[in-house]
Amino acid sequence: MYLKKHKLITCIFLCLLFVPFFLRYKNNYENIRFIKNLYFNLPIFYSNRKICINYDLLINKYLDETISFSLIDNKGNIISEYNSKIARIPASNQKLLSTGYVINKYNNFYSLSTKLSSDNENNYYIEGSGDPDLNLNDIKALINNIKNSKVINITLFEVNKNIYWPEGWTSQDKLYKYGSPITKLAINSNASTYMNIYGLKNYIYDYLLAKFPNSEVNVYIKDTSNHLKRKRILIDSINSNTILSLVTLANAESHNFTSESLFKNASDSWSKNSYKKLYFWLKNKGLPIKDLYIADASGLSRSNRVTTNLIASFLYKMQFNNNYEFYASTLSIMGIRGTLANSLVNNKIKGKFFGKTGTLSNVFSLSGYFHKNNKIYSISIIQNSNLIDKNKIFKFLNEVYEINDCK
Fold it and tell me: What's the predicted TM-score (pTM) here?
């Protein structure tokens, strides 16, 4: 433990020591950008507790023991909070954390690929990346590259069915589109129970047999975690929309399949349902992770536990990330876009709040950024209760926005 702390202190010291030398060769814009991103990546989080009593009346008016709330100003000060360190089920507010990990990992214009390849023995292979928009026309475009042969062997690589769903997804969830299995060769995000990997296998078999009636067609399914990385030649690929577009789908439209697929790609965890990389990524940013438990990337699992203190702190620190503007652009906009399009449309906060809702039975969450007087505030609200009152939460947010700050 002592060695770990010693290495951490040494790392921070060296980073700070070399900052002046980097700055000598950068212009002012790059200086600011460099320093901000350096802070984001260091395992430190500066935050002071400067409670503004102006919010106390609102807390007493709207909040009860089932609700947690955190508000951080543009300087990182916690200016109001209530039950902020109680870990609660966050629902889709979990996506704020997992998509932050994704957008930090990738170039915003990178794409997921579904590839057709072959080996020296003329065997064909299709391997996907969980493209949420992959459809049968895309598959047809790929297999049209297959040449006529006496025997046509094609292997589909897919994840093991034992890890189709993360921990905590209920049998009821799995019956609906929002609880579709998370697989690499999903057709239309597995929205149809009739087109799973076996339906895809049959589709490819029937299509190739109709095209090459004198050929022997064999279509196999193999576990993606066990296939040998033998040398293969790429024949063709289908690219998804950009990462930025997919993160927008995950956040603004709260698409569960996309958020899970993106995280599995970013964390290289298709062979298992593991979210340790997200946990340690947050920990290594110096963020308050006490009682944090991560069971999935989308928030559909009721096993997740997160504090509003962590979400608000993460949102604040994310402003120092080089990709913050892109990240913020993926969120819903109050009264305008996404899951918030029809909320508070006649209030001053319309167009000024960029955030994310989360809804499960007995759970409602609302977190994000609001812009006021050229300042950006980070806010998180979570309610876990048998008596969820979304209107009360929205009214509370609106009044928080309109209240005057303490001087």
Answer: 0.91
